[in-house]
Each structure stands twice: as structure tokens, then as C-alpha cells.
Amino acid sequence: MSDGLLRDLAGIVGAGYVITDAAGQEAYVVDWIKKYRGRAMAVVRPGNRDEVAAVLRCCNDAGVSVIPQGGNTGMAGGATPDDSGRQMILSLGRLNRIHEIDPVGNTITVDAGCILANIQTAAREAGRFFPLSLGAEGSCTIGGNLATNAGGIAVLRYGNMRELALGLEVVLADGRIWDGLQALRKDNTGYDLRDLFIGSEGTLGVITAAVLKLHPAPTARATAMIALSGEQAALEFLVRLGSRAGDRLTAFEFMTRNCLDLVLQHVAGTALPFKTMPPAIVLTELSDADAEADLSALLEGILSEAIAAGIATDAVIAQSGEQAKALWRLREGISEAQVRAGKTIKHDIALPIGRLGAFMRETEAAIEAAFPGLRFLVFGHLGDGNLHYNLQRAPQMNDDDFYALTGPLNRLVHDIVGRYRGSISAEHGVGQLRRDELPRYKPPVAMQLMHDLKTLFDPHSILNPGKLLQS
Ligand code: FAD
Ligand code: 2HG
Ligand code: ZN
């Protein structure tokens, strides 16, 4: 059966775009953090929407599962096949055309396989701004961003991926095409199918194109790194900065001392901008479309007041684009540093912002009591209430003993998150990483409706089975 199917697929996309050898598949079958490894019958690389539709029709008829994949940078194992060798990876990377920029409507229409950084560049060249920004932007695709409803560093001001999308084109499991590629800011004609596909992690359909919102280009920017005594001071500083800078506050990233220690140790060319390492650090950015706005002076004033009030202990304001980049490298290098340092148990949680301090104190005490000696790597998008509450092994532990703690640690952290009415996946999605935990934290009615939707959209369960929902 597989030979016939592979022949049909080669007939659709061209034999050179059906990869069956292990070496050719390697980059597609392992995830970015190297936590998951699967096997695939083939990696299929269609070149346009109609080829995607024909591939899905064949796979649906043959009852073969399809794993949509963009840049393969996801953090929840959502784009990795299982180890049966019977699943097909559908790689969208060849759908990489930027179709149109509309400077009046402020929109850009793109194929789903476009690399995020290329969309940012196209917008910039047109005198506009596409605000989604995250560490993997040089290799992740807009289809993956949409499928995971990605967040990143500018959600505070511009919203997450859902808020940046206007229209979608989606191929359904049976090969039908839903043309929702509209550039409308208003449309009240019933259920919002677009919002169903965004964040559905490749389980309801394959996104092939999107219309995205553009914003005015920020021509003034000020970037600062601030030293603080801890998370409570960081929250106080957030409130102070927000009330003074208003919607010019674009990013507010938090990290603890351990995170920066790890970056300085593992990421070449990084340096601490303070004389000594503070317990907590914030990286913030103000921006404005008005080139005349003196954001550095504004930031300097707010920082002086915060230092005088004992909220911040030290601060540096970037004096050039290069210096700003170096400060961002310290923040963006945390994921890379974790991979180099060994195994990490991750939590990507959202909490009501006002309760973050209490959550951190309670959770740290509970982990220290139950699993003494672990290394806390707590960082994230504090302005959105989104923490990456990550842990690494205690010095005397080996990797396997540490990894065996995954279940109990997840349970401990997520039960507290549940009590605070938070979420166990703020921006990375559920994938296979959180699939079995989800029913514990989501109301049964919500789980049932999600299963019902899955059955409606994908009756033979060929689209990314075993991700997000138990199949
Ligand atoms: P993939 O990894 O290929 O796929 C992710 C999921 O989307 C899978 O379930 C896959 O099946 C599905 N999918 C992919 N393409 C399609 C499609 N066209 N149609 C339907 N389903 C599809 N995320 C954040 O939200 N914020 C961050 O700040 C952030 N920082 C990161 C930093 C680093 C260094 C890395 C490695 C990752 C980071 N991420 C972050 C994770 C983030 O989810 C991804 O980087 C990105 O959104 C995924 O895009 P991708 O194209 O790589 O998707
Ligand atoms: C980030 O904010 C990413 O840098 C990755 O979402 C988080 O490595 C992580 O856990
Ligand atoms: Zn993040």
C-alpha cells in the first residue's frame, strides 16, 4: 500500500519532493529541543495549495496520518511524527511566496510556509511593521505561528498571533479548500472558522495562506535592561512603567539570575551589562511611530524614579542599535543555553498578572520542599503574565533521574497554576508534551466540544493524531 501511495504522492509533488531516506528525513523527525524523535513513511514537500489538497485527499483515502510541519521549531512536540514509521510529514516550507502588501488596508498576504523574519523584512521594506517577534523568527513559519497561536515579545502591545491575523486559507483533511482569505476588519456572518483553525496545532486543517495585519513602523525605540531585587520589584516596575509609557510599552521580559548565568556560560559573545549579577532582571522596550519621540529621555526619567524609590537597583539604556541587540541576545539566548546545558523540564504557563508574585513564592517553596536542589530557570513575558517556569537537574543528579521527575514536577506546578486559575500552555501549544495533562485542567465540557470538533473536521483522524487531543 505504501509503495502505491508514495508513487501517487510523487506524481503530485514531483519525486524529488518525497523524501524517504533516513539522512534526508533527519531534520524533520527530531524536534528543536531534541526531546522527541519519530519516524516517517516520507516527508512530502508540496509547492502550492492545490498540491497540498491533492496530497491530503490521497492520504485521507489511504487512511494515512499527516503531520503538518513548518519550521520545526515548536516546543510541544506538535510537528514530530510518532515512531511507527507509518505517518507522513507534510512540510510547508515550499509555500513561501509573499503575495501582496496593501498599504491602505495595512495588510500583507502570505503563503503559510513563509519564514517569519522574511515577512517582517517585507513589511519593513514597505514602510510598515509586522510585530510578531520571537527567538525562532529566522526559521519558524507563519503557518506554525498561526497553528500554535504564537506569542513572543511584543504581545503586550500588539497581541498574539490570533490578534494579528485577518483571513486564512485552509485545506481540510479530505482535500476540500476553505477560502477564508479575506482582509476584513469586521465580519459578523456566523461562527468564526478562522479562530478555530488558529491554535488548532494542525489537528483540524492545514493552513496554506494568511492575510495579516500590519502596523505603522516604529521609528523611535528605547531599550533598557534593569536590575531588580526580585519578582515583586519587577511587577511594581511593570505597573510604574505601564502607567507612564502607556501603549509605547512594547516589551517587558523578565529573567532570574540563573537564566543569565546560563546564557553567559553557553552563548558566545554575551556579557553582563551590570557590575554584579542581580537576583532579577527585566529587559524592556518602548517604541513609537513618531520619530521625534524622545523615548530614551522618558525611560531615563522613569528609571531614575524607580531607582530612587528602591524598586530598581541599576539600569542600562542601550545607546545604539548594536547595544540593544546585545541586550536582546542575553534574553533570546536562554532557550539555546538550556539545550546546551542539558535536559530541562519546561512549563509555559499563564497567570493573572497581579498574582504572579504569590504564585512564584508558593511554587518555589513547594518545589524546594519536594525536590531539593533543582536549578530554577524562571523567565518570560511578564507583561503578559506568561512565565517559562523551567527546571534543570540538581548537581548530584544524573539526567535520567532528573527526567523521571517530569510527571510529578508537572503535576506540582500545574496544580498550583490551576488553583490560580491560570493556563498550562500560554503560547507553545499542547502538542504531545501536554496532551495527557490537559483533561485534568480543562473543564470536561470544553474537552468534549474539542473532541466533537475534531470528529467533524477530520472524521478519519488523519491530521496530526495524538497531538493536542488523545486519539
Ligand atoms: P512547527 O514547529 O513546524 O509546528 C508547530 C505546530 O504547528 C505543529 O503542531 C504543526 O503540526 C503545526 N503546523 C505547522 N505549520 C502548519 C500549517 N501550515 N498548518 C497547520 N498546522 C501547522 N513560541 C512563542 O509563542 N513565543 C516565543 O517567544 C517563542 N520563542 C521561541 C524561541 C525559540 C528559540 C524556539 C526554538 C521556539 C520558540 N517558540 C516560541 C516556539 C514557537 O511555537 C515556534 O517557534 C513557532 O511558532 C512554530 O513555528 P514553526 O513553523 O516552527 O512550527
Ligand atoms: C521564549 O520565550 C520561548 O524564549 C522559549 O518561548 C521558552 O525555552 C523556553 O522554555
Ligand atoms: Zn516565550
Short structural summary:
This protein is an alpha+beta fold. Helices cover 37% and strands 20% of the residues. It starts with a helix and ends in a 14-residue tail after the last helix.
Structure notes:
- The chain is an alpha+beta fold.
- Among the domains are: 98-216, 2-Layer Sandwich (Uridine Diphospho-n-acetylenolpyruvylglucosamine Reductase, domain 3), CATH 3.30.465; 220-341, Alpha-Beta Plaits, CATH 3.30.70.2190; 344-419, 2-Layer Sandwich (Alpha-Beta Plaits).
- Helices cover 37% and strands 20% of the residues.
- It has helices at 2-13, 22-29, 49-62, 116-125, 142-148, 155-158, 161-164, 193-197, 231-245, 257-266, 295-308, 321-341, 356-370, 399-403, 406-419, 438-441, 444-457; strands at residues 18-19, 42-44, 66-69, 88-91, 98-102, 107-111, 128-129, 165-171, 177-180, 206-213, 215-216, 220-228, 249-256, 280-288, 312-317, 348-350, 375-381, 386-392.
- The strands form four sheets. It has a seven-stranded antiparallel β-sheet with strand order 15-12-14-13-17-18-16, with helices on both faces.
- Helix 1 runs antiparallel to helix 3 and helix 9 packs across helix 11.
- The two termini are 23 Å apart.
- The structure holds flavin-adenine dinucleotide (FAD), (2R)-2-hydroxypentanedioic acid and zinc ion (ZN).
